[in-house]
Amino acid sequence: MRIVLVGGTGFIGSAMARAWVQSHTVLTLTRNPEEARRKLLETVQPVYWDGRTLGDWVQTLGTADVVVNLTGESIAQRWTPEVKRRLVSSRVETTRLLVEALQGLSARPAVWLQASAIGIYDQNPDTVADESSPPGRGFLAELGVAWEAAARPVEALGVRLCYMRIGVVLGAGGGALERMLLPFKLGVGGPIGSGKQWLSWVHIDDVVGAAQFLIERNDLSGAFNFTAPNPVTMAEFARTLGRVLLRPSFVRAPAFALRLMLGEMADSLLQGSRVLPKRLLEAGYAFRYPELEPALRAVLEA
Ligand SMILES: NC(=O)c1ccc[n+]([C@@H]2O[C@H](COP(=O)([O-])OP(=O)(O)OC[C@H]3O[C@@H](n4cnc5c(N)ncnc54)[C@H](OP(=O)(O)O)[C@@H]3O)[C@@H](O)[C@H]2O)c1
Q: How many Å lie between the centroid of ligand 1 and the Cα of residue 218?
């Protein structure tokens, strides 16, 4: 199979590239092919695109059996109006451009995996969300809705479309865990805010595994929550991380300090959501890491 990763130089994309390059031809559309050559395996072919305009890269899309669209500037920063604009455009406008490119081609991929996020759901400690839950309110939910809508026209082109509504990904060398580790290693780690909010995590191997499952199962389409079957509260997460690292985990990061540092972005950490991977489980996907502690040990003790 020819798999085209868009945003394949990132934390999730590079894990997919490493996993798939043995058995498939993997290409990545990137704004920085030099960096891609440095970061990714030599066997992954970087193809330049600017993420804004049609160009030679369109031909690459036309050769794909599978497209995995992972573009998006990091959410983990203070959301100024300018940053919000970039968070939206790096997801929604890039996706629209890819769709426009596909509309001009006669050859189409069989399947399109579109990144989305569990931020699309209501951030409510008292509810459990699955794929049938309605979108919530606020910036992240609106972003999620617009992001998914941008990819929807590929269905009219006869392409099977699956949305990966990804939770908080735990893996080595990037993502949320890397940012959390320092205070724990310094002995001042602990829950964020009240600790009662839910953290719907997923091990990186299950992000790759579930994506592969969706590629192979051509009877499946629509939205899938990429979260482990056992989300935990922030307090439990901090306790488990402290136990795995053999470090104390009781120093709470107070809500007001986070709001001062991160502004509106802090709310996504302070609220959280309890999300279940109902459709992946119903379809028979077997999670490699359904429980948090083995997942953390696999990342941190590797
Ligand atoms: N990691 C998580 O916990 C998590 C959770 C939920 C959802 N997600 C979503 O999953 C996707 C991949 O996540 P990740 O953690 O792998 O992110 P990442 O490491 O930041 O990688 C994202 C990739 O997107 C590309 N990109 C960024 N801004 C772009 C722009 N303006 N135009 C075109 N390409 C752009 C970059 O590729 P180049 O620099 O090579 O062009 C980058 O490698 C993101 O959309 C993210 O929001 C991630």
A: 26
Pocket test for ligand 1, best of 4, 6, 12, 114 (most atoms within 8 A of CB): 12
For the cut 80, the answer to whether the pLDDT of residue 261 exceeds it is: no
Q: One-letter amino acid identity for 227? A: T
Q: CA–CA separation, 89 vs 300, rounded Å?
A: 34
Single pTM value for the model: 0.97
**Would you say the CB of residue 176 lies under 6 angstroms from ligand 1?**
yes
Ligand 1 binding pocket mutation candidate from 16, 31, 205 (most atoms within 8 A of CB): 31
Nearest to 164 by CA among 285, 66, 69: 69
Domain boundaries, the chain: 2-167+203-227+277-282
Check if the beta carbon of residue 34 is closer than 8 Å to that of residue 42.
Answer: no
> What CATH topology corresponds to 2-167+203-227+277-282?
Rossmann fold (3.40.50)
Amino acid at 98: L
- Distance (Å, rounded) from C-alpha 91 to C-alpha 71? 6
* Tens-place pLDDT, residues 26-85: 999 999 999 899 887 788 999 999 999 999 999 999 999 999 999 999 998 899 999 999
Q: Say how far apart CA 300 and CA 285 lie, in whole Å.
A: 25
pLDDT level of residue 284 (50, 70, 90 thresholds): very high
Say whether 226 sits in a helix, a strand or coil.
strand
Q: Are strands 232-233 and 198-199 parallel, antiparallel or unpaired?
A: antiparallel
In this structure, how many other beta carbons lie within 10 angstroms of the beta carbon of residue 75? Answer: 17
Q: How far is the CA of 147 from the centre of ligand 1 (A)?
A: 13
3-state secondary structure of 67: strand
One-letter amino acid of 107: A
- Give the number of the atom of ligand 1 that is nearest the alpha carbon of residue 169: 3
Q: Across the chain, where does the E strand assignment appear?
A: 2-6, 25-30, 45-48, 66-69, 111-117, 128-129, 160-166, 168-170, 198-199, 201-203, 222-226, 232-233, 274-275
